[in-house]
Design a protein that fits this description.
With about 260 residues, the chain is an all-alpha fold. The chain is built from ten helices and no strands.
Length: about 260
């Protein structure tokens, strides 16, 4: 072979592969991520599920890992990668088949998260009741009296919300004897959080108004800021819980 021929062979570079050839070990998914059926499956499942970010990410990673392990087992038996991924997806079930059972787990996780948030933040309303009581030594005024009266009543709402949240945590915890939590529990937790959040919003408005007129305004301002921060946390979590509670889950009756 002449030197010119060797140079021509080296300039030609590696042989090109056909990305659409299913017998190619790389498969169509390795050259174009958008065409990877595994990535598309995981993306569709991620978009269909709703719940706490950490729990959802962990679930998606477990499903992805299971799919990859199943596909690898097919590949070891000589099945092309593209076909192996399709077989793994068929074994796991379609996205529509997986969503109800996965969403049921995420809905319970969201209910537990919301119940934990309510249980930790609702007692702040009781603290607000104490702070407004400090201002009772000031000359009585209609605005201040109204603020103290609202805080007193809303502290009762806080106690009820805390008890309901604690009961929800107990019903969904590891010590629960029930194989699965009550079907309506996420709805109850969602509206408990919504009620607690609304109470915090009313408390914030009342305390902000009272702080503008009270002599000892720093205490009322502090209580209002505490109620506002609690409202922001609880309202966001309760909204997410209501959304999860409306989604279909495994075993739920079909709308007639």
């Amino acid at each position: 072979m002449t030197a010119a021929a060797v140079g021509a062979d080296s300039d030609s570079g590696p042989a090109e592969t056909d990305p659409t050839d299913p017998t190619d070990p790389a498969g169509p998914g390795d050259t174009d991520p958008a065409g990877d059926p595994l990535a598309a499956y995981v993306a569709d499942l991620t978009a269909a599920l709703h719940g706490p970010a950490r729990a959802k990410d962990r679930m998606i990673e477990e499903i992805r890992g299971g799919l990859e392990d199943t596909a690898d087992a097919h590949i070891e038996r000589g099945v092309p990668r593209y076909e192996a991924i399709g077989a793994a997806v068929r074994e796991f079930g379609t996205v529509a088949e997986l969503v109800p059972s996965c969403q049921e787990e995420l809905t319970v996780a969201q209910a537990r998260y919301t119940a934990r948030v309510v249980a930790l933040t609702a007692p702040f309303l009781i603290a607000c009741r104490y702070l407004t009581g400090v201002t009772a030594q000031e000359p009585a005024g209609s605005v201040l009296s109204t603020a103290r009266l609202l805080a007193a009543h809303l502290s009762g709402v806080a106690i009820a919300a805390t008890l309901l949240a604690a009961a929800a945590l107990a019903a969904t915890g590891t010590l629960s004897r029930r194989p699965s939590p009550p079907a309506r529990l996420p709805v109850v937790v969602a509206w408990t959080g919504t009620t607690a959040g609304a109470s915090m919003a009313v408390t914030t408005l009342a305390l902000a108004t009272a702080a503008a007129l009270a002599t000892n305004w720093p205490l009322l301002a502090c209580a209002g800021a505490l109620a506002a921060a609690s409202h922001a946390v609880v309202a966001t979590s309760a909204r997410a819980c209501r959304r999860c509670a409306r989604l279909p889950v495994l075993g739920a009756p079909e709308p007639g």
